[in-house]
Amino acid sequence: MIPTRIPKRISTTLVNALSSGVVPRVGLEYITVGRRYEIEALLRDLENTAEGGGAFRLITGRYGSGKSFLLQTIRNYAMDRDFAVADADLSPERRLVGTKGQGLATYRELVTHLAVRTRPDGGALELMLQKWIAGLQQEAMHENPDAGEAQLARIVEERILSATGNLEALVHGFDFALVLLAYWRAYQLCDDEGRQAALRWLRGEYATKTEARAALGVGAVITDDDWYDYIKLWAEFVVKLGYKGLILFIDEGVNLYKISNSISRTANYEKLLAMFNDTMQGKAPYLAILMGGTPQFVEDERRGLFSYEALRSRLMDGHFSQEGARNLTAPVLKLAMLSNEEILLLLQKLRELHSAHYGYESPITDEQLVAFMKNAVGRMGADTLLTPREVVRDFMDVQDILYQNPDKTFDALMQGHQVEAAKEDPDEITSFLTEFEL
Question: Is there a contact between 292 and 87 (Cβ–Cβ < 8 Å)?
Fold first, then answer.
């Protein structure tokens, strides 16, 4: 249940986001229900990634089924476990590949939203670099207490060169290492312009090599064609910074499915295949990629991922998969509907959240929660069309109305709907409450 004392900042975010039908960025631990086995499977992926492996998952479910919620939940778990995380939603302007820089736009979005536990809202790039450099400086001072300022600076630079030396063997690693060294030198000299130039390069904001060479002496820039190579560099580099790995969260994969041009769509699927192969074959150490999308985006054999044979053969269910025997280690993680018990538990948590946020005693009883749930799941087509988002938004709406209109009652609001509160089959409701000890 929700604790009576919840930080106002978190409860405000939760109430506002849930009432609007969007996924909150914080406080998910207060309202998460179900998805236990999916979360456990994804946490095992994180463990494997921390050991130098990689992971790739497609999380599928229709709109409002909880894909984004699950991705956000795992994002928070990852930060708590000392991973660096980055997230981006795909759109017509952000793809994996594009003729107008859409792939580079995705890279920029990911790096802009780079986050760690001490900077969970994104924008952690410079914080991570400064923390790393400060750590190297402290080590140098501790091990060389009599060294002068110039000598300590040389020691730190040598350690930076040593740390980035292994990166030089990777694709684009040499230029990446040069920019990191340029950042350190600007940092040391309190050269804000030089420091910002290095950060701009790391964020993929230089358009031409000439511009980058003039600012940093580096003869390369991050482009639409090679941005993913730099993501692999970041995955290895964040480990040198003291994190366990890099986890990418890419949502709204359905936007790749919506690409009308078949050549462009296939190019994006080819990039996705490369990302899948790299992470699954051990070619992208310390990198995990989680992508959310609709079942149609994956399974449509005309223009979905299954239209690309190389992906279909990797993502399709095995011959022994069947109803009631899920394989939670498969690349595609299909979200099942929440059970009635899970929906009821969710409603309880939302009731306590609303009460704690506004500081009042909710008038909604457990019996009325059951009636609301029966109303929701009893609607025509709810067995296949009802989603957690709809249930949450409707229930938050009911709570807001009752709180703002004390003269109204729950039963009065429910009149005219399929199930009246606590009036339809009271014996069945009592039995349900007893069964689940409510």
Answer: no
Query: Where exactly are the structural domains of the chain?
Result: 35-116+243-334, 125-210, 340-435
Multiple choice CATH, 35-116+243-334, 3.30.110.70, 3.30.450.20, 3.90.180.10, 3.40.50.300: 3.40.50.300
Whether 343 and 350 have beta carbons less than 8 Å apart is answered as no
**Single-letter amino acid, residue 26:** V
Rounded distance between C-alpha atoms, residue 260 and residue 262, angstroms = 6
* DSSP annotation of 3: -
pLDDT in tens, 2-33: 445 788 888 899 999 988 888 888 888 788 88
Beta-ladder partners of 91:
94
Contacts of 293 (CB under 8 A, 6+ apart): 58, 59, 60, 67, 252, 253, 254, 256, 257
Residue whose C-alpha is closest to residue 390's, from 4, 19, 84, 10: 19
Give me the numbers of helices (H) and strands (E) for the chain, helices first please. Answer: 20, 5
The dihedral through the CA atoms of 132, 137, 138, 140 has a sign that is positive
Which residues are CB-contacts of 85 (< 8 A; sequence separation ≥ 6)? 75, 78, 79, 114, 115, 116, 246, 247, 248, 249
Neighbouring C-beta atoms of residue 146, cutoff 10 Å: 5
Res. 433 pLDDT band, cuts 50 70 90: very low
Determine if the pTM surpasses 0.90.
no
CA distances, 106 to each of 96, 125, 191 (Å) = 7, 16, 29
CA distance 212 to 221: 7
The CA distance from 234 to 177, in Å, is 11
Strands (E), 208-245: none
Q: 186-222 burial, b for 16+ CB within 10 Å, e for fewer?
A: bbbeeeeebbebbbbbbbbbbeeeeebeebbebebbb
Encoding tokens for residue 250?
């890419």
- N-to-C CA span, the chain: 12
